[in-house]
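step 3/5: co-fold with adenosine-5'-triphosphate
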Amino acid sequence: MSKFCIGLMSGTSLDGIDGVIVKINEDGRFESLIESIYLPFSKSLRDELKELSESQVVNKEKLLRYDFLLGKLFADCVEKLLEKSKIDRKEIFCIGSHGLTVGHFPSQKKIFGVNTAFTLQIGDGDIIAEKTGILTVSDFRRKDMASGGEGAPLIPFVDKLLFYRKDKNVACLNIGGIANITIIPKNESRDLIAFDTGPGNYLSDLAVKRLFGNKHTCDLNGNFAKKGRVNNLLLERIFADEYFRKMPPKSTGKEYFGEDFLNFVLQVGRHLDFLDLFSTISYLTPYSIAKSIEMFVEYEDFPEILIVSGGGVNNEFFMESLKNLLPDVDIISSDKLGISSDFKEAIGFAILGFNTLNRIPSSIPSVTGCSKPQILGKISLP
Ligand SMILES: Nc1ncnc2c1ncn2[C@@H]1O[C@H](COP(=O)(O)OP(=O)(O)OP(=O)(O)O)[C@@H](O)[C@H]1O
Ligand SMILES: CC(=O)N[C@H]1[C@@H]2OC[C@@H](O2)[C@@H](O)[C@@H]1O[C@H](C)C(=O)O
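step 4/5: write tokens
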């Protein structure tokens, strides 16, 4: 019998909460999207979350209170989903909640002789379970990290489930705050490869505000970027960043491709016209994605189709640049294949929650570098 599951996601763009109700069959296969909702954060909440997730100095009390606050906002999102869908909460098998990442430090650092690496997503699962009365799985990344993995990306499991094809190598690209890809070889005996390619909407959102004023929350449809000309010298200088040279598994975050990175680019490109400067910053996203895919040119896994999701699908400059950079790849939005590009990750966390409760491992060693496939997350009983 298939089951209703709820997925909740709040990503690195800090724009709001995506929530879905999906139907999953007993083998763990996605059947259909039943309901979806997007709850944007207010401007002042965004600013607080930005401070919390970017500042090096953490206000302990603020961190803990926001852990609670987000738990409550995620629970509100569940209530809205139930109301909209008219589904009784007793019919929901589980909630899978990603939370909101406030820190992600996957590279090893020795403290008191011990190698450490960890990640933190807030929006406590206990609060969600208590307020909704529904079994909740949260905190998905830490078990992977505990076994030596990067803790990200986790959606590749879902990408394979949704998009695997026998006849073609497929790549799934999500352009969220950070961009990431999953390469799914048609030859099932080959390993899945997935990693964060680098910047995504977050860097573009920061740059648009800095260069064109705070009234802009993003580069709507890529309109500013389309007006400028990419400066190749600046592009090569910023593409020289060591993250782009690293081999997968690798993951990154706003700590890396955020304010500090933007300050560096603005400093190096200070002599440029604002539109050209912005176009170049923006171009770094499709350029680094295309270069990541080109790495596979010599391999049998080179993707013939690129299925794109995430808010970046709406950025025409990103999409047009990708098409020019990858002329041999068929680039389509996941919407064309029946998976909402806005809600793919929320759908993913509903599936990951279902996996946990069915003891299905969701992390993949070839993707995150964990020592063995892990059953992820923490379970909060209602
Ligand atoms: N019409 C549009 N034009 C340009 N950009 C857009 C448009 N609509 C959404 N975006 C971009 O998409 C972003 C939100 O993307 P998304 O919801 O995929 O991010 P996320 O889930 O926070 O990211 P992540 O996958 O990194 O966790 C916005 O911050 C904005 O930059
Ligand atoms: C630590 C963290 O929150 N990482 C996110 C982030 O946003 C995109 C990219 O960086 C990806 O690695 C990941 O999210 C998706 C949902 C994932 O785990 O697949």
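step 5/5: annotate
The chain has two domains: 3-152+344-380, 157-328.
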